[in-house]
Amino acid sequence: MARHLAFVLAFSGASVAFCAQAEPLDTLESLGKALFFDENLSLNRTQSCATCHNPEIGFADPNGAASLGDDGVSLGDRSAPTASYAAFTPDFHRNDEGAWIGGMFWDGRASSLEDQAGGPPLNPSEMGMPDKPSVMARLQENPGYVAAFDSLFVEGILQRPEEGYSAMTQAIGAFERTGVFAPFDSKYDRFLRGEVELTNQEELGRLLFFSQQFTNCNLCHQLHTSAIHPQETFSNYEFHNIGVPVNADLRAENGANEMDKGLFNNPQVDATGEIGKFKVPTLRNVAVTGPYMHNGVFEDLRTVVLFYNRYNSRSEARQINPETGKVFGMPEVPQTLAVKELTHGPALDDKRIDALVAFMKTLTDARYEHLLD
After folding, report:
1. For site-directed labelling of 29, which of 12, 246, 250, 311 has its Cα 20 to 30 A away?
2. What is the pLDDT of residue 75?
3. How crowded is the C-beta side of 30, counted as CA atoms within 13 Å?
4. Which domains does the chain have, with CATH numbers?
């Protein structure tokens, strides 16, 4: 197919599909799209970026708490974050107060989209390619890629592994910055534009979400100062330890037995006070991108709200995880728990819990609304 790719975005009603139509590889974005879906960039030719960031369900992995590797055996210990709205994540850095902000992956170890795109192909537990020259060899199997890289970068770039690999990540990053990943067309966005009204329950949830009296959701899940900013991503990209328990089922399956130290696993971080902290995820498309938390320990969005609410409730019933029928598990890393943030505000009743869930469902892109309950 020379300079053509096998996938083009096609919208049908509220759903999104990728179908086999030709598209010239004459821009970084179109080249990046082809690469994003190319399973030939994994060792056994079974896995692409889209395998763990499926465009049909919010660019997340629908197959469980952690993603299976290209070898069909390797299973990670963390869930694959949605790639929706990832382009708005700032590069990994310290803010004016000295706190770490941004970066890709749950521990921010990849500073930018390009850095993140370069990780999975060479990860033995993911796409499993042995080295950059091997990836370049796969790209050179496709004459369309060769022509596109020569045209968009410099001639012969795929024959120089370091430069070629960097070019590949640039193209994927360019695709991930397109509106396909961040359309800002959810019901909430349409509400801000005056195109629709929220239900009474959704409006209550919105008021609670942005309230500093009844909840502090927006303390971490609000990027902009204004509560009605048209490009709110619902994350401040900070790192916190919210006391997520071990996902025992996942650990039993993948055989992992070491503590996940979160931010402390980032090579740039050496302070023990950062152990157990994970990046605040976007809430965009949260209702369709479960399971939840960095280790996929919770299946249902309402369970997540109940988990937070347990810190403020003295009721024994509120300490029960409805998915297991048992008390919520203890934090994997208790020593850095964000006690002040987690214990702010009163306990919530069922009406308010359901309202928060209803509001978060309004953050679902229009093309995924058919996936909502």
Report:
1. 12
2. 96
3. 17
4. 8-100+112-176 (1.10.760.10), 187-371 (1.10.760.10)
